[in-house]
Write a structure and sequence with these properties.
Layout (H helix, E strand, L loop, with lengths): L4 E4 L4 H11 L10 E6 L6 E5 L13 E6 L2 H4 L9 H19 L3 H13 L1 H17 L3 H14 L4 H10 L3 H8 L10
Parallel strand pairs: 1-2, 2-4
Antiparallel strand pairs: 3-4
Helix pairs in contact: 1-3, 3-5, 3-6, 4-5, 6-8
Length: about 190
């Protein structure tokens, strides 16, 4: 169905299906190899990255990956395979929004992105908000809202994690404004 989509250590068909649902609407990415992989990430639930190889130098041939955590420290708070479908699809759509952001950058632009993301909180907030906006543009606004409300109101994730979500990501109120009447231009980066 999607010849450039790969799964690595993702055996759960529900997770694969939710990822395919999100990926299907990101046509821009279908020509690029993309791998969803499950790893023991200690400090992330999910993260998107370009793969550093020779193809990295050219946008047209670049490869990407989205990593999701199976680390016990994360799994005690949230098990991805147990999330409601809309929540998981929204989470994947956000990560795919990051991939769209990476795809639009040159190799030098990606290196600048990494430096900005790591060193400057304002830059990080802009990057997270852009990922949300790209997901909204692909029709995942309702799913993003479900994801944010789940993380902030229903999950048992630590308050430190929730505070990071509040600090760097679109708030449910901002998202609601974007979906039901306000222009994305009002969102400040």
């Amino acid at each position: 169905m999607y010849p450039n989509l790969r799964f690595h250590h993702v055996d759960d068909e529900y997770i694969r299906s939710c990822f395919r649902d999100a990926y299907a609407d990101f046509d821009l990415l279908h020509d690029h190899p993309l791998t969803l992989e499950c790893l023991p990430l200690q400090h992330h639930t999910m993260r998107a990255q370009p793969i550093i190889n020779w193809a990295f130098l050219h946008r047209a041939t670049r490869h990407y990956r989205i990593q999701m955590s199976n680390h016990l420290a994360i799994a005690q708070y949230v098990r991805l395979a147990e999330l409601p479908r809309e929540v998981l699809v929204g989470w994947f759509a956000h990560e795919l929004g990051h991939v769209v952001d990476y795809h639009r950058r040159t190799a030098a632009g990606l290196l600048q992105f990494v430096i900005g993301y790591v060193l400057f909180p304002g830059f990080r907030a802009g990057a997270e908000r852009r990922a949300d906006i790209y997901a909204i543009e692909q029709g995942f606004g309702e799913a993003l809202m479900a994801t944010k409300l789940y993380i902030l109101e229903k999950s048992d994730l630590p308050n430190m994690y929730k505070d990071r979500i509040r600090r760097y990501y679109l708030s449910p109120t901002e998202l609601e404004d974007m979906l039901y009447g306000e222009s994305p231009k009002r969102v400040h980066f």
